[in-house]
Structures
1.
Amino acid sequence: MTENKSNEIKIKTVNLSFYYNRLHVLKDISVEFPERSISAIVGPSGQGKSTFLMIFNRLWETIPDARMEGEAFIRLKNKWVNIYDRSISLPELRRSAGMVFQTPNPLPMSIFKNISFPLKLSGVIEKQAVDEKVEFALKQAFLWEEVKDRLSDDARSLSGGQQQRLCIARALTLDPEILLLDEPTSFLDAGSGQIIEDLLLSLKESCTILLISHYMDQIRRIADRVMELSGDTSNNS
Amino acid sequence: MKERFIEIFIKSFAWLSGLLLLSAAFVIIGFLLVKGVPTLSLSLIFGDTSPADALLLRRQVLTGLFPAMAGTCLLVLLSVGLATPVGLAAGIYLAEYSRGNLKSFFSLFYDILAGVPSIVIGLFGFSLAISLHHYVKEIYPCLLISALALAFLVLPYLIRTTQFAMESIPSETRLTAPALGATKLQNIAYVLFPRSLPGIASGVILAIGRCAEDTAVIMLTGVVAAAGIPGSLLSAYEALPFYIYYISSQYRDAYELQTGYGAAVILLIICACLFLAAFYLKNQLMDRMLYRQ
């Protein structure tokens, strides 16, 4: 594992603990992630890896009976921000920290509408700007050539690998500073997984990527550093 | 061996039950068509008025079903139009905003409302019209009062189908938009609501059917045997189900009874057209919200 020392810290947690009801899933985690790198998060099932990712876009707050202690910081637009501060706007935080789930989750709409959806949410409606953004995001996600002639087709008609790249493209339309990926290749065949890995390597030039993965060979190929979440401790290497 | 027998028995019983229902529906519709279709004619609908004059409202139709058809259509459109926005909003509230005890309380209340017999709602509408008459002399039992009462009758269907349609959306879809920075309202407007449209449409179709066929409510709130096309929301009106009820209990000769069957066939046709319209509207809305660039 090589780590580029010159990269500044982008994300950090301080004494972070997490509970589902009485169940104590994350215990006192203080960790830092450098910018423009891929950090892999590994560990057995049920140790809160997905929960850990959701700390950074606060998506866990929609889960009933969940509770967090400690603090989490992200350096957004070169300013350290406590993302659990009252002044933080949730939609803005989630636009800066895009998330891609394990199962591809295209919305039941056309390919174009899926990609332009985050733009619509943030109020970008000027037709030409939207078109350009959509094309750019699809190119960034290595998907443009495959879908440029069928943008108004239902996104669910794409193959699994294409759907996952669509979801990555969708997360990219708002130029996020951070990408949170929860086992993005686990439901894909080797070929599609390979494309996603290449894609992630090209994206780390502009994003800080946190990636949950079960595949040690995948981690060896693309991760700059590894964090292990297990029973009581978290180890960094 | 025994288990296999039970399995075969249950399977055939389920199959027969399905068949029974289907054949019952066929028998009823077939019976209506056999009895009713021969009476269908322009004169059944327009009497001795010329169709063009009747449709352009230049002359009143005195002996045909045209005023009753117009009354039923107006009544359905008015009551479903009044009930739908309220029903959708209440359903969305129940599914997305209310929690805990308050939600159980509201659910119980809507279930009770769903269980109120239509004649009681009719009585309530009648009392409402009478008490309003004390303050505004123009208000009698009329089209508007009927529509309001029917709207209350169908509200529980709309609320429940909307709620269930929204609640049955899988959690991956539910989290997609928030993860992309959607506010709660944006999530509802752009994802959850369009996704629920098929379920909501079936609720609206149920409501249309209920409004078109109801006799108990309208009998007490403004329908009459002969009123012509209603001139305003505050006038009395005619309606097909009431005509069928009236003619089948008061007929003077075989032909009049026959026209009752004719009216029933026309009522079925009107319902089918309204269902198709609701379906078309749903498809257009979904296409607009989800696919068109």
2.
Amino acid sequence: MMLRTLLVALLSLAATGALADQMKLAVTTSFHNSGLAEVLLPEIRKDLGLEVQLLVVGTGQAIRLGASGDVDAILVHSRKAEEDFIAAGNGTHRTEIMYNDFVLIGPAADPAGIASASSAADALGRIAAAQAPFVSRGDDSGTHKKEKSLWDAAGVGADARDVAWYKEVGAGMGAALNTASGLNTYILSDRASWLNFGNKGDLALLYAGDPVLFNQYAYLPVNPAKHPHVKSDLAARLETWLTSDRAKALIDGYKLNGETLFTFNAAP
Amino acid sequence: MNEILQGLLQAGRLIVTLDSDLIEISLRSLRVTLSAVVIASAIGLPLGCWLAVRRFRWRRFVIATLNALMGLPPVVVGLIVYLFLSRSGPFGVFGLLFTPTAMIIAQVIILTPLIASIAHQAIRELWAEYHDLLISLNTTRFQRIATLLWDGRRALLTAALAGFGRGIGEVGAIMIVGGNIDNATRVLTTAIALETGKGNFALALALGFILIGLAVLVNLGVHSLSRTEVSDRW
Amino acid sequence: MVNPSILPLTVTDATVRRRGKVLVGPVSLSVSPSGLTIVMGPNGAGKSTLLRLLHGMERVARGTLAWQVPEAQARRRQAFVFQTPIMMRRSALDNVAYPLIVHGTPRKDARARAATWLDRVGLADSATKLATVLSGGERQKLALARALIRDPEILFLDEPCANLDGRATREFEEILTAAHAGGTRVVMATHDIGQARRLAGDVWFVYRGALHETAPADQFFAAPRTREAAAFINGDIVE
């Protein structure tokens, strides 16, 4: 008897707030830290009457959330993982929306001298040569995967990344930046997280601009054939909106500290 | 040090201006934790009492387990609840993941052993005192438990408040099962984690001070209520 | 009384053991339907255990207790007053009302009857006080009222006045005597010989866990048959 009342109470609690159309979208920390979501979400709500609930996680967890059907779509930036996601039948398709870029941050004194590097690989090579302390996300996120591929391109394999100077913190972008700031080390960050970061300390933006640092965001709706409960109609409406001219204007026009962060590149 | 001062100032500003986000987040924190405390007390208090009154073969083992579960890492609880509530998990059909209900479920699991264990300690002493009388008066086991719960209510209130203290400050489990969704499952602790991640230490601290203030207010409120009762009745 | 009497109680070879040691017994006795029995004996002789045995609070290792009605019914018509009164953490009134409420009397009726009992034991002014703040004498009178409120046929008391001063003891004895005059069978342990002389109708002298001597009070005090009883009455140390 008591159990039943408890269950009813729990279910009614769960039912509250299901008024507007709602869908869940897993996004990466870097996207959320950019502040772009705070511009887009109110407009989406206005245009579509759709409340998009954001789950801010690393790419690794975002992929897991989509695969187990706990969200309706994901917005991530790790091409390899995205293609595996589609291949495994977890998503219907992959739509490129926009890109931003990664930047190399480090102590303002730049002991490894990466500011004058000719490429991203060259910059990382200089850090490894100087054995200058470097903080890595180490959390299997899109940024972490990108960083590892850059190291490999620079000819610094996993074995060469010695723990004496290469520190994997296993944390999100913000926490990793806090660590880098505290230890005064180099770190790879997306531009948005860096600009929004409030605890810069002695750190400065030292290297950016190599096309290899561009960071493509893609939108992947979860496959309704695998998870019948997902709101694929809402996910489709959101996709139409994200690839529209309206989204283009908002995304291209978004500036943080006077800098443009994202470039819209969706095929209409 | 400067950061702490700024945090205090910002906390004051948020409170004075009745910041609508702050109020919403604080109320959600209270709603989640108070619901969890009520449910965990409804389970934990009678359970702790029953363990004090009842002698059975596995009693020591159950009590030891309960005490060990008090130290359960919230992150582990969060992960397990997450896997159960996930669409791919056994209770996926209810669609509870990333809702306040999921956060309440996780907190109930964290708080119940704590409340039961503290209740057991308190009731054991009371039972030693009442034992002969209640046996002599021929009471049933249910009546004994009801009597001990009622007469031990002040100690049990402390148990519930300890549960509240642990729940309101908990972040590991509710971050995982709630997802820290703005306007849906964001509470004070997850907001603090978020702002710390953004390097906004002053705002994070401000929220932290508000959290502490809230906890103190609830404790004072409960204590003053129970004292009113004392002067009325006794 | 509509109900059949639960007395006499016949005890045959009853033994109480704890951790392999015999505390009381084997004891054989009969508790008659009326009277006021005083249980005497040196400390540690087994007076308390004997009373608890009769009240059904000790597990009987051997032997039998036979009431005139089934055990469960007999339990409802007995009450027990402990040496240290157990005060529930409630008001004095609620302490006295508790035995009624717990056995199904509506709360309001129970409180009304408890109030008349508090009046009868001189605690009317303390009705709303928390029982645990009462003095020793008040507590024991409260415990007596709580024991008598269900109108038990037999009342056991285990050295209830051991910690009371003279005045409190006198007041306690007055209430007890009134209850006895009203028909309640009383079995009380005491090692206060004066109290035993004042109250006893008959005496059980307990020595080393056994019923060493039983006799009507005047006979017991005038001419004890055993050496130990005589020494005890004399005030000698009996081991």
3.
Amino acid sequence: MSPAMTSRRPMPRTRLRVLTSTAAILLVTALVTACSGQVPTVVPDPGASASASAPPSASASASPSPSASAAPVTCDNPTQSYAPTGPLPAAEALPAGSTMAAIRARGRLIVGVSADTYLLGSRNPLTGQIEGFDIDLARAIGQAILGPQANVQLVVLTAADRIPALQEDRVDIVVRNMTMNCDRWTQVAFSQVYYQAGQKVLVRRGSGLTDLASLAGHTVCAPKGTSSLKNLETMAPAATPVPADNHTGCLVLFQTGAVDAITGDDTVLAGLAAQDPYAVVTDAPAFTQEPYGVATKAGAVDLVQFINALLEQMRADGRWAAMYATWLAPTLGAGTGQPAPNYGRAP
Amino acid sequence: MSQATAAAPPPTGRPAAPPVQAASAPATGRGPGVPGASVPADVLAGRGIPTGLRQRRIVAALAVAVFTILTAAQLVLGANAARQAAADAAQVIRIQDIKVDLLRADALATNAFLVGGLEPPEQRAAYDEAIATATGTIAAAAQAQSADQQALAELSGLVVRYASDMEVARANNRQGLPVGAAYLRQASSELRGRGMTLVDALLDANTTRADNSLANQHPLWVLVPGILAIAVLVWVNQWIARRFRRRFNIGLVLAAGAVLAATVAAVTVSGMQAAENSSLSNGSYRDLVQAAQARSQANAAKSSESLRLIARGSGKAFETAWSTQAQAVSAYLPVEATDAWNAYTAAHAEVVAKDDAGDWDGAVALATSQTEGSSPAFAAYDKQVAGVVESTASTVRSTLDAGAWTPVLVAIGTVLAGIAAAWLAWRGVSRRLEEYA
């Protein structure tokens, strides 16, 4: 046997061993590959998915009022309404062809209200019923049109949905702490002022915040589509406005520390402060006047005149004062009484 | 000893097939080795046969080794894919369970909110159970699939926030404060928004994983290494047959037989797994996914019904959501639950009719009563469809678990057969080589 051949002689056992170990390595590699981790689950980031995955909300149908972004309309008579044509007609003797007669023929009055403005219009969790100053007024209007057993259908609206609901005939009237202003007069009609409120600030007890000026650099919540939010933006531009669906939504943000203060009408803020012992309304005087009116569809002059006559009747028979005593006097004090009417608006 | 003379010495011992002698080969090229076979040039030249044998011995053994590795690896990968499919399907079931439990908890909480005063104790207990089950399943799901951990961690945080907001809502409700409703709305909105975005992303990812795992059986690829190995063995056999007086080399034939047997077993087990997965994909597994969809979408619809009433006249968006969810339920509805679902949709239509007619109190009574109206109808449907989900889930689990170990056993058999075949091929060629020793 030649040396060359010796050197090339195979060694079967060694080679088999090499082959076996190669096989083992390959098997292990295959196993490791097969068992390796998977691609992490991809989750859309909250910002990108907000529009796609947002659940429906009650305010989803609310469109901003047409003039929301336009320059504010000015006038010198925002509280001026249509004078009643006479004393309040009985429910059984409504003028034929009037808006009230049509409502009576339907058998129910549909009223846009709030269900979360404590003391004015809020759902009582113990009874499930909506109650408050505004609700009593709505029922009084219903009784005037439909009689003592009036069927008043309450439709819960967000502030931003008040004007669209009237324009789209989803409601007959809105009694929802709605401020009368020149801008809104171009879209709806108002009764005489049924309550005179003013905008104030609610802060955390001991926070050191005292008035509108002290809010600079702080986050302040107000509901979307309200005059409160607009006033905040114009009168305290250094504050950071944080909109919420409604005032109770603002209280949640306030309680969870997401905002430092809430601004709104003194009536609304009194209702919020009554729900949270750590929240106080500052002593500073109201920085705006917020006259509340019952809103109707624009041009429903007969209905406005009817409501104004009813409000006169309620002033005379003490029903307005009784409503105030029930709902607002315990937190707002004696108050200044039912505002005097301001008539003279031409239909 | 030079290679040129390697074929020259007479064979020692008792060779089974003496090499064809170059000297005896006629000029026609026809030799005595294999009738009809042409005599190769190396034989005519009288050189190179032992070297050729040694080379082909290695080639044959290597071919068998490569076959063994590839086939066993494919079987192990197939077994792994089957186990992965079982794990992925189980994760899909878990995520569906989480979705159902969360939406059920929300449906119960929102419905309880509609009832004035304290919620009924059994409704409260059902809510607590749904939250507890959901959090438990989230933990189990995070342990089962590491790729889901980040999304599940966020979901877990969201559920904790949801439950605590609900407690704040309850505490305020008990004191008659309207801010409770705002906490409930916020909690529900976050759960149905971001919460369902997370759950749906997890469902999508795991459904894709399960589909991929179920489709991850390739019986045809298992066939390839076997065919190639047998081809190499046949080629080596033919090479030897031309040079020795034997048509077949016993070692190579036995090796080819072993490779063939292992290949048939491997292709059979892989093919059976593929067929089983395919029938699962189009059968029980599909039924399971659809029944679970029908359950979760129905719970979302029941929540929408409550939210519509809570919105009290401004709930058009929720009614639109209800319709979309009800359509999804109809698309996935198991036949067993059809009557129960129709009974619920009829009860819902009554609720809507009352609300639209201005009788909100009547609508709420019909939606919250535990004895008549939409709630008992819904509970009956939910129970029915939950039974369908449970039974199909157990079918899927047992089917996938049952077949997971067979490929591993066949892989072990393939390795043993491969080692034997390699040894047989080596020995078979070595016997010819020994004739030159």
4.
Amino acid sequence: MRYWFPFPLLSLSLLGLWLLINQSLSPGHIVLGTMLGIAFAWVMVNLQPDKTRLKNIGRIALLAGHVAHDVLRSNIAVMNVILRARTRPVNSGFVAIDISLRDENALALLACILTATPGTAWLEFDRQTGVLLIHVLDLENGQLWVNLIKSRYEAPLKEIFE
Amino acid sequence: MSHLTDLPAWAAIPVCILLLLGSAVTLVGSMGLIRLKTFYGRLHAPTLGASAGTILICLASMLTFAVLQNRWIVHEVLIIVFVILTTPVTLMLLGQSALYRDRIEGSDDVPRKSTGEQPDTSGMDI
């Protein structure tokens, strides 16, 4: 099973992508999408990505909810900063965070989350030391950001991926 | 434009609100490129358009065509997903090159690399 379907989750998402793009649920498109999904999973084998198993599916929904809430909140916060930039100096700065995540897919997802929430920008991750350097637009308290990212994103990602 | 007049008022109002909100957020993000004074500050501004701007405008588009064609339209979700998946790549590239340049120039505003003084030239960090 594992031999014929090396990346079942990827194949399924490619099938979903194919059906969404074609906006159809006809049997022909389902067959074509399944074939494409399996074929591209075989291409992925040659790229040799790190294999990860999702461990805690229930946490994904909770994490997604948190992220959606934070995207909304940080959008409003960043708009405030930009609109008031004339009268109030922007207090931005760098924050270094010790990240204990090592799984590449989890780190990639963390990068997507941090970029999707305006106000935090991923700058550099050092694999040897595990130090992640981010730039924060509205920096009042560096430790607050460290705690926020560690408890709100890193801990659930660790539960999901490791 | 012509078939937009077919849109009933109950749908047109939320579509307009979503569109105006989305474009306002994107506009503020673009204003940020001028108003924020540092390069790293400017990294944050376009993410407004990439997150809330894209999501709101795509929601408006989904609603419009779902009402006009009387069926569920969800493929705009793909735009949101791909924009969110691909923005980090560009932002990291820009951020890392700025960091690299500032470290080479010995700027004091930028934190040093924690191990060794020389910037890592491999550039393979995620």
